[in-house]
Predict the structure of Choline transporter-like protein.
Amino acid sequence: MGGPLGAIIGRHPTAAGGDGDGQIGGGGGGGIIRHNRKCRDLVFLVIFIAFWVAMIVNSSFGFNQGNPLRLTYGLDYKGNVCGNRHAKPDLRELMVRYWLNPNQVYLSGIENSQFNLADARSICLMECPVPSEDGLNWVCDYPEGDIRLSMDDWINRDYDYYEFLTSEMRNSSLQLQGPCYPVIFPSVNVYWSCQFIARASNVSLRHWQQMGGVNIDENIIIDKTIHRAINSPSPVLKRYVADIGKAWPVLIVCGGILPVFLSVIWLLMIRHFVAGMTWITVILFNALVISVTMFYYTKAGWIGNDALSVVIGEHDPYIHISGREINHIRAVAVLMTIVMIIAFLSSLAIIRRILIATSVLKVAAKVIGEVQALIIFPILPYVILAVFYMFWFSAALHLFSSGQILRNDCSGNCCSFDLKSNKINCDNCCGYRIHYTRNIGISILFHLFGCYWATQFIIACSSTVIAGSVASYYWARGEISEIPFLPVFSSMKRLLRYSLGSVALGSLVVSIVEWVRFILEALRRRLRHSDPAPVTCIGKFMSSSSQCCLGCIDWIIKSVNRNAYIMIAITGKGFSKASAIATGLIMNNILRIGKVNVIGDVILYLGKLCVSLFCALFAFLMLDTHKYKSAHNKISSPLFPVLVTWGLGYIVATLFFAVVEMSIDTIILSFCQDAEEHQGTAQYAPPLLMETLDSQGEMQRLTQGS
């Protein structure tokens, strides 16, 4: 182990005495931790800083090129994004995309057709037009050229200025070449696009035919074509990302404020009501899992009448047949059912171990009571993480929408009347698309990796500060209770001065392992979908085994990292050396601390899940209000906002629960090292700690050899 730790971090000299390297010479002089430290792993701190510079540059590209409106709203025939106030003309109130020419929509839906729906002429309106009950309604192009109308007048006239057209313009309109187009089919607003219903209005169609208009195809292809376009994978993913932007109040309340409140309450209850917290945590966890699962069942339409179609475009005639959002909700409902069953069976399995967990939590409760600043310290990393997430989510929305708007190269007949040139134009009449380059995909992946690394770094810094504070309390024999705020600030000072590079390295290792798992899983899924041959039993076994091995490696690395942060806080060593010390200490005492540590971690994990599940449940309730079912805040599905809220709640809970988690781990590691240094009798353990361990019979387990 490289020397006794008591001599390094305690006021009191060890039996060896002396002032050797890192040792202290007396009982009363100096600070709590006096050790000849120096900056460690500086190379990785430089890499982390350089990575952040690259993150800022990458985000600035998104802010410069992106427009989150593209994720929700479509493009018109001029290449403008509906709802864009900076477009020409101003489209700030015109958010619904409507396809003007029904024959072009029909043509794009024919099998093997060279004409695409993206090239069909579309326009931005306030709401989907409906056929007239006693005549023929028109929707005309944006007023320009010889049409002397303002945009407001055009809107007030229900987009109709057919009476102002010249004879040439009217003849062109009767050929479905504009500038005015008949409203023959009823349509409904589905995800901000007008979904045609292939039941033409008899009155409008008769008037159109009497005026000498060209034949209009009546076929189910018309509305199925738009439905397929709306529910293709790319628009669904864009809507999911856009839902996060629309539901930002839910993310702030349920993913930011609520988990802080719940975590602080949990810490206070651990401090004052530790005996019953293990039972409360287990029971509450199962209740919340059941509640969230039932909400997913409700939104999937399996319970009651509150299916997802009530939240999103209930008028879509095909939403109950192949809506992707419904299928995704049902998949999550099945997954939550499995989680619910596993959670219930696991709870039954650990009932007999609850008393051990209670004794472990008593240790943490006593530490929190002595070093009271630990309860409020997580607010600092929480604020830093909140500021980072606000920046990151904003940059992510812009990066996801940072493609270039380019005109298509179409070969179909898309001639239309150009009001500026006052003639029919067949050259530049193709539609527009948003083109995403390979570089944008790389930028998004880089941005996602940066989020994970930064999150792990902040959590690691918080854990290291807590570990240093608890170690100071332990090796000072409880004298630190007289000045409760000093150990936290001293530990923070040591982290900022010496150990940021080591923390950057540890968080980078975890991030790389997680991303290797993510990449391998993505490749596995792609290979499975690309290979039509059925998977053999051996193939399934190998796939499951590899996933299990990667999961175990990930868990081991996270566990080693957590203990390495403790040794970094105590000894000031670099990450590699601290990991070796922590691993050696754990392996030498695995039979002594294994049961206590695992059961304590399980209860804390359930506590974090309780906080995150409650946040998800509350997010469901907020998203079920009228605000998110109508107007501009209308979301396509509660799935992504709820999952993001769940994740944010878990991260915030991790910051606050680290107070208890790191306290337990630090106390146990320090206790085992203390016992090893003093022939099985811990000398630095505070009396309250020894009383707690003795009361549950754990003292004997920890001090006896294997």
Residues 311 and 625 are 9 Å apart (CA to CA). The mean pLDDT is 78. Residues 241-300+323-410+445-525+556-699 form one domain. The radius of gyration is 32 Å.
